[in-house]
Amino acid sequence: MLDVLRRIIQEVNGARSLEAALATMVRRIRKAMRTDVCSVYLFDAERDCLVLMDTLGLRTQAVGQVSMPLGEGLVGLVGQREEPLNLEDAPSHPYFRYFAETGEERFSSFLGVPIIHQRRMLGVLVVQQQAMRRFDEGEEAFLITMAAQLAGVLAHAMATGTLTRPTQADGQAMFSGVAASPGMAVGELVVLMPPADLNSVPDLIPTDIEAEITRLHEAIANVRQEIGVAAARLVKRISAQEVALFDAYQQMLGDAALGQEVEKRIREGQWAPGALADVVKRHVQYLERVDDNYLRERAADIRDLGRRVLAHLQEDSPRTPDTFPEQTILIGDELSAASLGEVPRDKLVGLVSIRGSSTSHVAILARAMGIPTVLGMVDLPLPRLNGARAILDGHRGRLFVRPDAEREHHYETLIAEEKALSEVLEHEQDRPSETSDGYYMPLMVNTGLAVEAVASLKSRVSGVGLYRTEVPFMMNERFPSEQEQTRLYRDQLESFAPLPVVMRTLDIGGDKDLPYFPIDEANPFLGWRGIRVTLDHPEVLMVQLRAMLRASVGLDNLCILLPMISSIEEVDTALKLIDRAQRELIEEGVKLARPQVGVMIEVPGTLYQLDALAARVDFFSVGSNDLTQYLLAVDRNNPRVASLYDACHPAVLGALSHLASESRRLQVPASVCGELAGDPAGALLLMGMGFEALSMNAPSLSRVRAAIRRVSLADTRTLLDETLALPTTAAVRAHLRQRMGEWKLAHLLPPDD
């Protein structure tokens, strides 16, 4: 059954349209389950009912005509309850409703399962049989699996515009991912194609069909030449049978084979890369399904040839800066820092990626540049999105594809309001972050990019609360030398002197890999990361510590921060290395003072080791992002559970309040450098808890400063007491929004749904 399931999924995913996908599914499911009927009903939001969209076994004239509201009939009951219904004698069920158009009076047994995508009911998949019997557990499980697969097909169809009538509840094709950088954008999607990836070629309509055909023939000719050269080079070293394989490649590329079929697709209205990808994938899918082992192995050959031809086609179609739309939302399988540079900054309004995480280099860059970004959008039908109109909501991690005029107008209004607010807040950015009752709350900035991007902030902040030293490591092709690191750190320290600069030692692992030092683990966030890596490689850490200390000479504004601490032994070992680095430099004639050393509180276990930590370090810095994900057991970069990740969860707020209280008792300064500090409402809560400084990305400074300047310290303490008494995250968020509204500060928060 598993093999049958795979083949059906493969056929459905390869369908050129929604109608073809539905027809394939009902035909193949009916055959696989040996039933008399298989039907698909889709939910039509405008009519608020389920509509019969395809069937094999019922009367075909009923397709598009039979409909029922949720809760009416057996199909409506499945849609309303969003759970399977398995009946031996369907006509005897109290919810049974007879539709004369279908001719279903002949069928007794009924099995219906809901089609659900991202918690939205999209339709119902049904099988029926004349015989009076209950479908067994295996059959029910099979149909549930098929419905789950069909949900993905429907989501893709909605995004590509091929689903015209039944749609999601809000009338839009909406996809969710991980909110990596706040803000909103309306623009045109530009798909960034990975080199020679047949599955990521967007659909485009050619402006010159003959030119596309010429490009195709030139690309095929180049590949034929490459194969001929390779065969000639290897002819004396491989067997006659293997030489024959090269001849087979040449035949596949011949005008009467691959080339002719691709040319036909181009003349039907596709550009050369899209036509090639479609033809190759169709041949591969066919060969992978046949029973002959030899032919199945040829599927890999066809795929390889397709990639080779595609590589040559892509060489001739690069984008230039002037060809990007004025409002470009860049979208790709995995975006890199280099891909951002391909789009002129004044045209780039948003970023979307299927892969990636909120702490990747791209995410850090996007937040620093103020570009709305959503990552981890696993369900996107990437090849079909090029040129589509879209709305990107970086606050909630959403992408609306081909939105209607009403939604687009709504978001454009919100974007205009955000821009106007930023201009208003800009006028008070050089004023102190002081409450209405005279309490000064130091605001610091998170950095890691080029100095010139943040040096202008010096007059607006109390220092750098987090300098991410891993960013220069990510941008290199090897570990940077001590001299290279010293220059980078010196620039940062000089730019902000005499203000303190908190430099975190190399924090890789988890979702932050170095290209020259990959870490491959089954569970990276609970694995080898942060201080665990650098203590296992003291040669790397010692170079970094020496560079930091050398860079601080004469400035004395360096603070060293140790990430991912989970035990006292780690702190003791790291402190010994710091002492050793200092001794070595002093012996070399370098005069320097010992910097302050702190630890990141992000592993929940450290909350129970504060006394021992306080005896060893000078300050605590709370990484609220990791602390939240570890306390809640939620991978914040997994879009399927991203909605569960919220630093305003009562358990997280309780832990933070406890930490602030303990820090005061221990007389150890504590600050927060996670995303919660950059949330205006979150910042007020943290101030009420008693944290001594808040550090955030530069774009968040203005809103947080505005919030602090318009409340009193007493107000924030009252807010904290009220909030800590609430039992759920939703209640906390609602209360914060209510209070911010009463203080006329609601405009500082992301727009409400």
Automatic annotation (TrEMBL):
Chain's gene name: ptsP
Xref: SMART domains: GAF
Ranges for domain GAF: 17-164
Keywords, in A-Z order: Cytoplasm, Kinase, Magnesium, Metal-binding, Phosphotransferase system, Sugar transport, Transferase, Transport
Family stated for the protein in its record: Belongs to the PEP-utilizing enzyme family.
Alphabetized Gene3D superfamilies for the sequence: 3.30.450.40, Phosphoenolpyruvate-binding domains, Phosphohistidine domain, PtsI, HPr-binding domain
PROSITE patterns named in the record: PEP_ENZYMES_2 (PS00742)
Enzyme Commission no: 2.7.3.9
Pfam families: GAF, PEP-utilisers_N, PEP-utilizers, PEP-utilizers_C
NCBIfam families: PRK11061.1 (NF008283), PTS_I_fam (TIGR01417)
MF (Gene Ontology): phosphoenolpyruvate-protein phosphotransferase activity
Catalytic activity: L-histidyl-[protein] + phosphoenolpyruvate = N(pros)-phospho-L-histidyl-[protein] + pyruvate
Enzyme class, broadest EC rank: transferase
Species annotation: Chromohalobacter beijerinckii
Cofactor(s) needed for function: Mg(2+)
Protein name in the entry: phosphoenolpyruvate--protein phosphotransferase
Cell compartment(s), UniProt: Cytoplasm
